[in-house]
Structures are given as structure tokens and as C-alpha cells.
Amino acid sequence: MTNNHFDYIIVGAGSAGSVLANRLSADPANRVCLLEAGPTDKSFVVQTPMGVIALMQSKTRNWLYNTTAQPTQHNREIFCPRGKMLGGSSSVNAMVYIRGNKWDYDHWASLGNEGWSYEEVLPYFRATQNQERGASQYHGVGGGLNVANSRSEHPIGKAFIEAGKQAGYPYNDDFNGAEQEGIGAYQATQINGERCSAARGFLHPVMDRPNLTVHTAARAQRILFKDKRATGIEVQIKDQIHCLYADKELILSGGAFNSPQLLLLSGIGPAEELARHGIEPIQKLPGVGQNLQEHIDVVSVVKSRTAGPFGLHPSSWWYATKELWRYITQRRGFFSTIFVETGGFIKSEPDKSVPDLQLQFIPMAMDDHGRNLKYLLVRGLSLHNCLLRPKSRGSVTLASNDPQADPKIDLNMLSDPEDLATMIKAVRISRELLSQPAIKQWNAEEIFPRADQQSDEEIAEFLREKANHVYHPVGTCKMGSDEMAVVDQRLRVHGIEGLRVVDASIMPTLIGGNTNAPTIMIGAKAADMILEDNA
Fold this sequence. Notes:
Elements: E1 5-11, H1 15-24, E2 32-35, H2 44-47, H3 52-55, E3 65-66, E4 79-80, H4 102-110, H5 118-127, E5 129-131, E6 145-147, H6 155-166, E7 182-185, E8 190-191, E9 194-195, H7 198-203, E10 212-215, E11 218-226, E12 229-237, E13 240-252, H8 255-265, E14 268-269, H9 271-276, E15 283-284, E16 296-304, H10 317-330, E17 342-346, E18 357-362, E19 380-387, E20 395-398, E21 407-410, H11 417-434, H12 437-440, E22 443-448, H13 456-466, E23 468-469, E24 499-501, H14 516-533
Parallel strand pairs: 1-2, 1-13, 2-10, 5-6, 13-24, 14-15
Antiparallel strand pairs: 3-4, 7-17, 8-9, 11-12, 12-13, 16-19, 16-22, 16-23, 17-18, 18-19, 20-21
Helix pairs in contact: 1-14, 11-13
């Protein structure tokens, strides 16, 4: 490799990494290198929203992680898909545009993270967005991430909104506006009915910049140091090992699983974990890989009385054929769906200060992240109900000191009794919603939980059997100044010069909603801090 010196090297081309590459390379004087372990995102399957079903099982474009056996969930190994291509998980997600609650960011600031209050991060949400509804106090236009109304709008989604009203919940036409609480339609990170990933929005428009080098199939091996300064990265690009050097900063944007893994492999982390794998310690930081948080989710599934909902049931084939042609010619309809077209944010108890549950309604039957294909042959409905701020904490550690090995992931969901109690309430709320008159015409019978699972103890057992998550891992390189913090409020790794972490792993606590838009915000805010600190 003829050029191995850069000002900035970014490891990971996902939601944060794509934004960083865009912002840092805007000044032609900055030499920027972006490394991505997976391939390019150029694929009809990636661009087409319906393609998410195939991407959930793609060995090429998905890390396909699994947890260790989980004692709190009958020793199940929980599937943890993560995007592995340009755009990262924004190239495989369900494209729901949610920022979280104002309270979440004010809480971060209250923990001592100056600059991260809602009023301070809102400008970055607005600047990175192109809201098709137009600009407002809460929304911006002209940013790379296109945000649009659904181009599918299945009528059963409208019925679910009406069911929410019948159950006593307020209607909300903008979950990212003045108030988050209520039931309504989600907006999508789409443009003209196609996926608008972070790569499409921020990376592809600037790929021709001469000062930006992008390597795919580039697997980071370990960080290079000179004393307590990160100087570069050892990386396997295709089949060859290279050493690339960052004259200003090395930035990790691999996400809540991969960033702590790389820190640990490089000698930054808990002393006992490093010693266990024979890794020479560079900086002892006990919080690396700890504080893992994930939205605990339960899906209630019912059979449908009539044809109409999505799926592969023979009664849907003619509908699907017509909708495919509609998508090809108009980029509208079934194949543009984000599946989760409607839902909302509600409180498990009236006295909660902010919503603590998120609803995601899908007009099809599903099980095991959609991987249980027999459920696609069932006409049915699914209602996700997830806990927004769980108290359970997990960890990411090393399975070995081999950089090619998967990290050891322990979500430890439902380990906190309060989480289990709230999720029991969530199941009861979902049942109530699915029994409302507006939706009852489609609801023939319960698939799970079973109709005979009614008591708290029976529902708790159902949760241990079936509870999962919704792909929002955070917290493993948390921001703060306490002994378990990994980065400071400017996302610099404690005790190490020239090294930052910029991705969802820096969130000290999980936000109340989907994590893609917040991670893009983090990338944009971090870019400003990096440029300021290196001016």
C-alpha cells in the first residue's frame, strides 16, 4: 500500500462512521481513511425495504452474532444481527426514524456530560435530516438523512391507530416533535421508496473526494500505540495485513459490540479480562465492554381472520405480485414497507414521567426475528412491545485474543426483577390493544402468548421463553467521568491520546426509542469536536 499515513482513520462505516467521513473530509486539507469490515452496500436487496428479510440471514452483509447461553431466558442463545457493509446497521435496519425523548439527553447532561442536553443535540438532529414535511422548530431540511412518510400505508395500520385511540391513548402525528407520547404512524429513513442509510445519505455523495480513502473488506486487528498515544491501526484488507497511521486521531465507530472488542484486543479494558487472554495492558479501564443495555422486547402474535396482512400465505401471492410491479414502476406499496408502519410510545403506569414502552405493529405473523419462516405462511398480526429504559445490564468480553473471533455477548436481559414486572404489564397492554373493536376483525386467536397464559407467573414464563430485543445495543464504552466511564464528554478514551470512540457504545444510558438517528447525531456532534480539538 503506497499511502499509509492519514490525519484521521475511522474504523467502521456505519451510522456514525459515514457521517464522520463526510464531515472530516469536507476540508480538503484533511486526509481521511474509512475502514469497513464488510462489502459495499450496492445491492437491490439493500436498497429495497422488503429486502430486510433476506439481510437478516446474510452471511456477507450481517455479523450474525449470538449471545452466550442466557440463564435468565432458559439458556437460549439470543440472535444479535448487526450490519456488516457500508452504512453498517443503517443498511439492514427497519428504517424507523426516532430520536428518543427529550428527557434522555437531559439525563445524559445531568450525569456530568456537558454539551449533551436535548437543546444542545437538537441542532445536530436538524442538520443531519432532510424532513420531507418541511423545516420546523424540531426538523431540518437539506441534511443527508432523508425522512419521509410511509409509501405503503397498509389499511390495517390505520386500524391499529384507531385501536390505540379506543384504548385511551392520544394520537401523535410526530414522535420527534414537542411530545413523544401517543399512537401514530412512524416516519422512515427512505428516499423515493428506497432505503436511505447513513452510507447513502452521507458517504456516497462524497466518495469521489481525493482526500477520502475508503477500504471495504478491511478487518481491524489491533490498535497501534506509542506509549499512551494511539498512532494507527493494524488491519487486514482482503488477505493482507497493513499498518495504517493516524497523524491526528484514530476513531472507533464499530458499534456497541465491535468497538469494545477492538479496545480489549488492543490492551484497553479491565485488567482481569486482558490477563485472561494474555493481552499486554496499555490502559486499565474497567468499564470497557460493561454497561451493555438493550431494549427488551416481547412480540404478541395473533392469527388473522381474513387475507390482507403481509406474508407468504397463498392468499397473498396475487397481492404480492401486483405490489412488486407497483414498486418497480412507482416505488410505492408493499415492497416499500418498513414493516413497522405504525406504533407509539406509552406509559406502563399513568404516573410515569415519560413513556417507558414502545409499540411497533407489524401486519404479519413473525417469530425469532423473522427467521422462523413457517410463520410467514400464516396470516397474522404481530405487536412488539419493548421496554425503553431497562435496568438489566450485560457485557461484551473476548472469546479469545483472535481478532477474527466473535465477541462474547451477554445481554443479561430480564435479570432485574423490575424489568420482568414491567414486561408482564407490557404483555397485558398488547393484549388489550389487539382486542379493541378497530382491530378485532382481524384477530382470530392468539398464537403467543397462548390463551391459557394469563397469570403473572404464566406470562413471566412466556417472557423467559420468547422475550427478545430490537437491535439497539448501547453503553459498552460509556461516556462520563466515573470509574466505569470509557470516554469523556468529548468522546476521548480516558488515559489515551489520539483515540476516540464515536458510536452507540458511548451512550451512558439507553434512549427511549430506535438508536439509528441518535447515532448519526453522535457522529455529527463528534465531528465538530474533533475538528475543534485539532484546529
